[in-house]
User: Fold these one by one.
Assistant:
Number 1:
Amino acid sequence: MNGNAAVIRALLDEVDALGVSEFCVCSGARNAAIIDALVQRGSFVRNFFDERSAAFFALGRAMQTREPVAVLTTSGTAVAELFPAIIEAHYQNLPLVAITADRPSRYAGRRATG
């Protein structure tokens, strides 16, 4: 098992422990391995193009089910798009989990988007 696979396995163990069974995912190269792992294990995955929409949909599902729902995005501004729903979840005491994939450190300060 390579390093990324071990980290993903640990991550999925943690979300299982939280009771997350539903994932709202936004496409991106940095989170492709996590999305693949979710699909391989048969997790309930909904796909979104827009992070803000994914986060508010997940918030609505958490409101409806009172169960934790996870939103999966890449890094940078994608994460910032989750903030309004995260703040709302906080004030409503709803279980919304944000999972983000970070940009590799070798890209820092190089205007790289990949």
Number 2:
Amino acid sequence: MGLKMIEETVFTKEEIIEIVKNNYNIEVDQIEKLDRGSANLYSLNNKYILKEFQSKYTKEEIDKEIAIINHLSEDDIPVPEYVKTLSGEYSIIYKGRVITIQKYIEGYTMESNTGDYNQMLESAEYLGKIIKSLETLNFDLPSNDVSSWYSQETINESIEKQENLLKKISKSTYPQIYKDLTDKISMLKYIKDNLDFKDMSKLTVMNTHGDYSVLQFIYKDGKINAIIDFVSACKMPIVWEIIRSYSYIDKKAKDGKIDIDNLVQYVKAFMNYVQLNEYDLKFMPYLYLVQLLASTFGYKQYIADNSKKSLLEFAYFRTNLCKYLFKNAEKISNALIEELLNQN
């Protein structure tokens, strides 16, 4: 379920050779385009990786990401090692794109929901280690104010967004999409009338990766060899990152049905490094549910372009998660509190 929205490269191979020589004094005689993530990646001499970021990213953002990665490296977390330019910088700008070079990371990527039990727990442990390490980061990360996800006003906007997309299709032409959007609207309306959000302000907010999942791992011999892409790092309720990353790695969650016992073990492994409070455990499934219900991602893209089938499959997966969480959120909360609240 790896989703990629890759922009066309600004490079020719000749330009890569010239840029790398002029800025890094590295002679390149072998270039291979890599099919990994949402950036344009090139292997150079099987020793380095050149990364061409999407145009939306600024040099300041990427330099901050590298500072985060260098901080995590000091705490023995497996992250990329970046190469400095001749002028002592970690990034350059070429044709409006930010460019970095890092040492080659040996390994492979895994698709979503293909992780076994041990790989699932390893993911949880590294998330705990990352958040623990980022407690001592010496600069501020942007704050992701997720309170906007669950306000009455935002839920009304989410309902309107789903309804507007529903108006663009017919039940006969897109029966499954029509049903899913209708179901999401119904769930949002129920949540608006029945869920009390006032205690969500008590969720634990800390620095975190921001987009942590199996899609950001490079594996070697079945174990994580590197964790990448910290450009979304921010301060936010960490329980969202916990349950989201669980839902993307556990093979038992492949159809959008959370294995509650496995989720409990995932959170338990995380809590070996960072503690959670009662409100974290109570609202974890609800926070994730409301965020997923608000999104039209996947459906919107497929309706506009029927070739985007991978995005549609991703949308189906997330709606299945919504349906499962909607029916089982209280059960999940109770299990987490019962099993973990007094573990230490």
